[in-house]
């Protein structure tokens, strides 16, 4: 295995990991504030991709723009789709159960996840040959960059990968600013530390929770578009495994810690790519490669939970009840 | 204090049931005698109408065109009519029947009247719509329409008399209790049998409407609560009766056709009950439970002597397969549980979800190409031989007591035994020190540990026990289906068993109870299987049902007392405060 191949794997891993990180931020923010694993977050992610695709498919002028110019418009569509769904889910499914026993909202979240997936599966409208085609039961094509990848040394950098990393960096920079400097961001920190005291201090915790959902969903929409650009397709069930990976990333980085989410995402992405790449590179271990990628990611989660359950950056939240 | 006692008595007198039953006379617009007569007349007419033809052609499924005896859905209407007459007996205060309506008979009448009317009208409407027009109705249809409407009118003209349950009568003699339990369970079995053997969608909808509304009536009249209490007092008799009734089911079948459905329900319910130990008792959310079923099934299939197995020449006896299946499941459970159970419950949820997914990927990949050869990849292990125990070949038809048992009938018997084992384990564990420890951990782990319960050890035990029960069911499942493929064990799929449906069966039925998951599993299997138009919307409705269930009735259909309190803490506290206030007021009144 040459250094170039190894660097190539790391580069791909960084792009993949940045995407995981963007999704993981949503998990970690919601978890940090209301201690809920939002199983439906993977579906918010999926909705983002389909929202963006809808803008592309249904507004013909967008299709004729260069992709880089069309992307911001698509991003708006994706964000609207995923944020609206997130707010609705929070308002009508999760909020009524705020004081219920822990198991109840978790089960609700599973219900929301299945419901959202099936909504797209059954009724997502696409124009097809003058008719509207309803429902998606197979992956749908997503626009991709036409240009050639960049060369850096011997390493190929796909345009979509480069964009993913840039966008993830911008998002994290904004999030850092938001949490540390704005009033709402500090209210969010206060609510995460102690919701009761925060309420006593005049913070509208309900609003803070909605903001956490909105931000998480918006980031998921961004991630979803990068997913579409990188793989050239979106599918109604992509939220399940992406959500699982992103949650792993959130745990890896220390759940409740927003920077941890991104770090965990990057570590997971690189580890995943490098492991499978290295294994596939040698004849003896070849068969343990690509097909086993998810298994290695899962093993990593188990090992982290055994060795460092608070995550790489995380505070110890395991005992917080 | 002593001189106040008579006043106390007089103050609480108006609450006694006999005086309450006089109350409706004041409020009712129509005299109760007339309303009751209306119900009685309607019930008799309803019964009569089922002996008439409801349409003239046989093109509507179920053949409603026969004059002389009831057919198709007319049977449902007939049964409801008879029940209505019985319920009317409670309204007239017939001795012995008052036991049926401890919380007031009007709701019972309303429920049954609605059950008869809605179910009958639905069928008549279906006739009119599917055969294009009311022209397809005959005299009998109009008679049925009117006859079933009368009791509804009568029952809703009676003023509501719902009140606190009357003091249960002096304990019945033992034999009478047993007879009642047996009768109740046998009737439940007949209802289930009818539901399973319905052969077309309209029939099942009519059936479901009737059962649902009648159950509502029975529940609000308090008779179900009374039966539950009776069952709780005679556990052994109840279990024996339930087992006997389940056994009776298979003897009633004339062909193997519906035994397959019954087998699937039994497997599904058995696994759901196993999950209930993990989720309901210990409060550990396991989202990959079906993987343990898969582990058991694969382990058994590999050593069953199936030609496509890696170990085709190893044909171990069934008991050895069970040991291997259970053993491997426990190992898998401990591997998954050991690192995660030390942490907060949420981690377990996600790790088990991951495990369920990983299991599928692993067995897909162990095909000799993208991994070592073990499970034959996506094709799975097929040709798993049918079981043969003590010379009884489960794959061949047998004649027992004059009834022919096909393959699925044979497996039904075996599955019944398996379920009895799981129910037994569940019941014993639930009442033991172990079960109480689990409940304590579920309620508050920190407090439980302060009381000297080793949280981690007990949680791991619950997890391993759950895994082993699923593995056990899996070993039988492999033989029943003759094939084991990765796709059978998914997180969510459109047919049970899968992890999401298993969890839903537990939640829908009622966590921490035995009958809850059984009921939940039967409903979740039957309803989608019987509604053809559900086919692709099944998962959607299922997701919606989960959300609504958690929102409006998180304790499930068969609530566990303790859980109900937990979920409705505020309401209960409010009701208690109200009761205290009321007691204070009446005390003040009494003092004055």
From TrEMBL, chain A:
It is found in: Cell membrane. The chain crosses the membrane at residues 6-27, 39-59, 65-89, 101-124, 160-180, 208-229, 249-271, 291-307. InterPro entries: ABC_transp_permease, BCAA_transport_permease. GO terms for molecular function: L-isoleucine transmembrane transporter activity; L-leucine transmembrane transporter activity; L-phenylalanine transmembrane transporter activity; L-valine transmembrane transporter activity. One of its GO terms (cellular component) is plasma membrane. GO terms for biological process: D-alanine transmembrane transport; L-alanine transport; L-isoleucine import across plasma membrane. It is a multi-pass membrane protein. Its main location: membrane. The keyword Disulfide bond does not apply. It comes from the Bacteria. Belongs to the binding-protein-dependent transport system permease family. LivHM subfamily. This is Branched-chain amino acid ABC transporter permease.
TrEMBL record, chain B:
GO terms for molecular function: branched-chain amino acid transmembrane transporter activity. The keyword Acetylation does not apply. It holds the Pfam family BPD_transp_2. The keyword Transmembrane helix applies. It is a multi-pass membrane protein. It is found in: Cell membrane. InterPro entries: ABC_transp_permease (IPR001851), LivM-like (IPR043428). Keywords: Cell membrane, Membrane, Transmembrane, Transmembrane helix. The chain crosses the membrane at residues 33-56, 76-97, 109-129, 141-159, 171-192, 204-224, 236-253, 265-285, 292-312, 318-338, 345-363, 411-429, 460-480, 500-527. Residues 10-24 have a biased composition (Polar residues). GO terms for cellular component: plasma membrane. Residues 1-24 are annotated as: Disordered. PANTHER family: HIGH-AFFINITY BRANCHED-CHAIN AMINO ACID TRANSPORT PROTEIN BRAE, HIGH-AFFINITY BRANCHED-CHAIN AMINO ACID TRANSPORT SYSTEM PERMEASE. This is Branched-chain amino acid ABC transporter permease. It comes from Actinocrinis puniceicyclus. The lineage of its organism: Bacteria, Bacillati, Actinomycetota, Actinomycetes, Catenulisporales.
């Amino acid at each position: 295995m040459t250094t170039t191949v190894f660097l190539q794997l790391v580069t791909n891993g960084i792009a993949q990991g940045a995407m995981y990180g963007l999704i993981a931020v949503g998990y970690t923010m919601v978890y940090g504030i209301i201690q809920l694993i939002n199983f439906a977050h993977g579906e918010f992610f999926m909705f983002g991709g389909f929202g963006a695709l809808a803008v592309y498919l249904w507004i013909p002028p967008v299709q004729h723009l260069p992709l880089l110019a069309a992307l911001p418009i698509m991003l708006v569509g994706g964000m609207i789709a995923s944020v609206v769904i997130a707010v609705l889910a929070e308002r009508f499914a999760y909020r009524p159960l705020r004081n219920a026993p822990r198991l109840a909202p978790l089960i609700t979240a599973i219900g929301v996840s299945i419901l959202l997936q099936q909504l797209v599966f059954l009724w997502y409208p696409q124009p097809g040959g003058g008719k509207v085609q309803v429902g998606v039961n197979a992956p749908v094509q997503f626009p991709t960059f036409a240009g050639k990848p960049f060369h850096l040394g011997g390493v190929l950098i796909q345009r979509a990968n480069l964009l993913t990393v840039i966008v993830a960096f911008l998002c994290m920079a904004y999030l850092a600013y938001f949490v540390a400097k704005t009033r709402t961001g500090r209210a969010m920190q206060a609510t995460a530390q102690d919701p009761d005291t925060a309420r006593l201090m005049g913070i509208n915790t309900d609003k803070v929770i909605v903001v956490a959902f909105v931000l998480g969903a918006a980031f998921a929409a961004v991630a979803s578009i990068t997913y579409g650009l990188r793989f050239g397709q979106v599918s109604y069930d992509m939220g399940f495994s992406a959500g699982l990976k992103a949650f792993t990333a959130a745990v890896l980085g220390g759940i409740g810690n927003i920077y941890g989410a991104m770090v965990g995402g990057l570590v997971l992405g690189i580890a995943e790519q490098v492991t499978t790449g290295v294994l596939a590179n040698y004849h003896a271990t070849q068969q343990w490669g690509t097909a086993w990628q998810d298994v290695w990611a899962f093993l990593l989660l188990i090992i982290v939970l055994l060795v460092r359950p608070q995550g790489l950056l995380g505070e110890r939240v395991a005992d917080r009840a | 204090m002593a001189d106040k006692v008579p006043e106390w008595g007089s103050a609480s007198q108006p609450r006694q049931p006999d005086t309450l039953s006089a109350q409706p006379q004041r409020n009712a617009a129509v005299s109760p005698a007339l309303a009751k007569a209306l119900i009685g007349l309607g019930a008799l007419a309803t019964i009569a109408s089922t002996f008439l033809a409801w349409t003239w052609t046989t093109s509507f499924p179920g053949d409603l065109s026969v004059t002389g005896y009831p057919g198709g859905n007319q049977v449902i209407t007939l049964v409801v009519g008879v029940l209505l007459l019985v319920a009317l007996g409670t309204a007239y205060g017939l001795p012995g029947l008052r036991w049926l309506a401890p919380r007031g008979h009007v709701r019972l009448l309303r429920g049954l009247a609605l059950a008869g009317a809605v179910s009958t009208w639905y069928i008549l409407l279906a006739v009119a719509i599917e055969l294009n027009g009311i022209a397809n109705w005959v005299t009998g249809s109009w008679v049925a329409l009117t006859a079933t409407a009368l009791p509804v009118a009568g029952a809703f003209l009676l003023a509501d008399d719902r009140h606190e349950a009357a003091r249960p009568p002096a304990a019945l003699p033992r034999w009478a209790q047993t007879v009642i339990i047996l009768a109740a369970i046998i009737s439940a079995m007949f209802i289930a049998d009818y539901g399973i053997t319905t052969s077309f969608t309209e029939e099942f909808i009519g059936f479901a409407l009737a059962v649902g509304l009648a159950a509502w009536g029975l529940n609000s009249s308090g008779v179900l609560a009374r039966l539950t209490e009776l069952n709780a007092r005679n556990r052994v008799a109840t279990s024996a009766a339930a087992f006997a009734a389940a056994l009776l089911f298979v003897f009633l079948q004339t062909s193997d056709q519906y035994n397959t459905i019954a087998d699937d329900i039994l497997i599904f319910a058995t696994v759901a009950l196993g999950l209930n130990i993990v989720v309901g008792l210990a409060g550990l959310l396991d989202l990959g439970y079906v993987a343990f079923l898969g582990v058991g099934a694969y382990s058994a299939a590999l050593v069953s002597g199936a030609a496509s197995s890696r170990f085709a020449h190893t044909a171990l006896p069934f008991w050895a397969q069970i040991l291997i299946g259970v053993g491997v499941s426990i190992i898998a459970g401990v591997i998954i549980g050991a690192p995660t159970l030390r942490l907060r419950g949420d981690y377990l949820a996600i790790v088990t979800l991951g495990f369920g997914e990983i299991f599928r990927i692993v067995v897909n990949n162990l095909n000799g190409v993208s991994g070592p050869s073990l499970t034959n990849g996506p094709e799975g292990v097929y040709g798993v031989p049918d079981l043969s125990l003590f010379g009884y070949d489960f794959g061949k038809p047998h004649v027992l007591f004059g009834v022919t048992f096909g393959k699925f009938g044979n497996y039904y018997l075996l599955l019944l035994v398996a379920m009895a084992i799981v129910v037994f384990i569940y019941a014993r564990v639930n009442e033991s020190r172990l079960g109480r420890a689990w409940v304590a951990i579920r309620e508050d782990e920190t407090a439980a540990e302060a009381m000297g319960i080793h949280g981690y050890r007990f949680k791991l035990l619950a997890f391993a026990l759950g895994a082993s029960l699923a593995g056990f069911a899996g070993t039988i499942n492999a033989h029943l289906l003759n094939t084991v493929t990765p796709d059978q064990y998914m997180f969510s799929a459109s047919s049970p068993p899968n992890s999401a449906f298993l969890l839903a069966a537990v939640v829908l039925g009622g966590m921490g109870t035995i009958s809850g998951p059984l009921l939940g599993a039967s409903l979740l299997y039957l309803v989608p299987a019987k509604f053809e138009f559900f086919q692709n919307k099944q998962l959607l409705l299922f997701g919606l049902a989960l959300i609504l269930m958690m929102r409006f009735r998180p304790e499930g259909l068969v609530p566990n007392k303790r859980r109900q309190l937990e979920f409705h803490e505020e309401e209960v506290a409010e009701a208690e405060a109200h009761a205290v206030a009321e007691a204070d007021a009446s005390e003040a009144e009494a003092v004055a």
